[in-house]
Design brief:
Blueprint: E1 11-13, E2 16-19, H1 26-35, H2 37-40, H3 51-55, H4 60-73, E3 77-83, E4 86-97, E5 103-110, H5 119-132, E6 139-144, H6 149-158, E7 161-172, E8 175-185, H7 194-199
Parallel strand pairs: 5-6
Antiparallel strand pairs: 1-2, 2-3, 3-4, 4-5, 6-8, 7-8
Helix pairs in contact: 5-6
The structure holds coenzyme A.
Residues 39-40, 43, 108-110, 115-121, 144, 148, 150-151, 153-154, 157 line the site of coenzyme A (COA).
Length: 211
């Protein structure tokens, strides 16, 4: 069996824990996915199957096996996002290429019920640090639809560099969608951790005017 660098791994910062998917995640994963169709469907890959079919408890074993197989091959490092002991999303290091390129793309989603708590930026910072550390990559890319304000905010918080505009790039929610590509290379980090960039964000104002 091939050894995938940096895998399996658990990554943690404050209340956010990233860990490999488990077969017994079926019920918790399905519950959060079923509840979030309106929140997630427009950002997810086109599928011939309905949301309910794709996200039923019974579809997890096949998906889990596929994720595990991809991790074994080293093309993907899939993580469940756990917050307060509950599965609230996923973040995947995908399209992992070694050799001269040493790059990957990262995709993520978070339960709408816990949106706005910096969970995705924390998870993204953790996996970027992992990519530049144990995984041994040089470059990380995140592709985002221009109309996805919350996700654009995630990469903005971490200071990823806007690198490209890809026309009709990915087959998402029933059509070929334009994407903005954001990237960061290892030398841009200057030996520092991405997680540190999040800590440098200005704190929330302690008060705001109300009417
Ligand atoms: C994009 C996403 C992962 C961000 O996760 P998150 O953990 O909420 O990230 P943040 O806490 O940093 O919030 C990012 C921005 O979302 C917006 N936001 C926060 N709560 C929100 C809510 N309930 N509804 C809509 N937008 C919200 C805010 O503008 C926030 O920026 P701010 O912190 O400066 O106010 C999440 O919105 C999501 O899963 N969306 C659907 C799937 C998706 O778009 N995946 C990414 C595809 S590229």
């Amino acid at each position: 069996m091939a050894d995938t660098p940096g895998w399996p791994a658990e990554l943690t910062a404050g209340p956010v824990l990233l860990r490999p998917p488990r077969l017994r995640d079926a019920r918790a994963w399905s519950e959060v996915r079923m509840r979030n169709e309106q929140w997630l469907a427009m950002w997810e890959p086109t599928s011939p199957n309905t949301w309910d079919e794709r996200n039923a408890v019974g579809s997890w074993p096949a998906l889990h096996s596929a994720l595990k197989a991809a991790a074994r091959r080293g093309t993907m490092l899939p993580f469940m996002i756990v917050y307060g002991g509950r599965i609230v999303g996923q973040i995947n290091i995908s399209n992992v290429v070694h050799g001269a390129l040493r790059s990957c793309t990262i995709g993520y989603w978070v339960d709408g019920a816990v949106a706005g708590r910096n969970i995705a930026p924390t998870a993204l910072a953790l996996v970027i640090d992992h990519c530049f550390g144990p995984v041994g990559l040089h470059r990380v890319e995140v592709d985002i639809r221009p109309e996805n304000g919350p996700s654009l905010r995630v990469v903005e918080k971490l200071g990823l560099r806007k690198e490209a505009f890809y026309e009709r790039y990915l087959d998402i929610d029933g059509g070929w969608r334009d994407h903005l590509a954001f990237a960061v290379t290892q030398e841009e980090m200057g030996g520092r951790r991405m997680l540190g960039r999040l800590a440098e964000l200005p704190p929330e104002p302690a008060w705001r005017r109300v009417r």
